[in-house]
Amino acid sequence: MKVLLAIELIFGTISTIVYVVVLVLGLAVAGHRRAIVWTVAVMVGTSATTTVMKLAFRRERPQWDDSVHTLTSFSFPSGHASGIASGMGVVVVLSWLYIQRKAIRWSVLTAAVTLVAVVGADRILLGVHNLSDVLAGYMVAGFWIFAMLAAYPPETSGHVASAACSNHPVADDH
Length: 174
Fold this sequence. Notes:
The chain has helices at about 1-10, 15-30, 35-55, 80-100, 100-125, 130-150, 160-165. It is mostly helical. The chain is globular.
């Protein structure tokens, strides 16, 4: 159970904010202003949507006879699931744009998918979410990633797919 609680803490709201700030600072140093705006929009949009949905649906958390711990906030959708899915989605998109080596990009994708699955499973195994809460969190994140790719892609050509097919990073607007 200590591992599950550690995962909960490592990928909680405060930790996610720290990770996003570090990413944004790295993007700023590299001069990728458009990617900064895109990243912040995806993460804030995901968080805001998750919060509004929790308040709108007001689904109570699962009840267990022997729960690890009890949370008092609403359950649907899972904030941990939406946070990790949006964060890892951002990392995957940006790695596909700015990392030249295919092996590294595929390693990033594999690590991201693994983290998303581990955090989702953690929420269920801790007994604080139903599977539908986790899946809804993933869907909220997916919506924001793809909506922002369509509305304001993180690179200037507007075609993330073209960058994913090449071995070269896309030039950013400076």
